[in-house]
Amino acid sequence: MYRMLLLILFTLVSCGQNRSEDIEPINSNINPIVNPNPNTELSYLALGDSYTIGESVGSNDRWPVKLALLLKKAGYNYTQPKIIAKTGWTAGQLKAAINDANIQQKYNLVTLLIGVNDQYRGLSVESFRTEYIEVLNKAIDLAYNDPKNVLVVSIPDWGVSPFAKNRNRAEISEQIDLFNKVKREETTKRQVRFIDITGISRQALNNDLYIASDGLHFSGAMYQLWAEEIINRSF
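Structure for Lysophospholipase L1, as requested:
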């Protein structure tokens, strides 16, 4: 009986060790972004769609603006972000807008949040992968061709919004997860940091505090949570 108890205990300990070893932190091989000099002014470019431009919230409630403010408080002297984003843009449309802008400047930080409109319009995951890779490569190029200067933010789940109350919310969430899986795969391949805010966005279900006045997009309170998650994960 004593020997059997020892065998069971050994088995439980071994299983626990194996489980912990199988769990690898997201982008664990990417070091935090280092502040070279608090007195050096750093540039910031935010690329995206309605979430980045802050549809239905004030300009100060946009998450890139909130992120820049948090960075300043932490001693990173980033300027107010230049934003290239528009409500409704797919990855392909963002790519075209970047090309049209003919950007000559390079940026110390580039953030990228795109993909929700590809999912919403019913575009295939593989077509999104192709367009996303091109947009991500452009983001890296604009960040002094240094992947460490780029942050990719996952697609939030619009299925939790009041706008989606008569839709199949479980199906929307499943599709969002599939698109995010592609984003994570292609992002980590290029040694770019991937910040997952999708779970945080799902806190908006039945919580008006986190929903903008249009009933679809997220509020400044939600964008604050995203900004805090980004800075906690990256800096």
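Residues 2-22 form the longest helix (21 residues).
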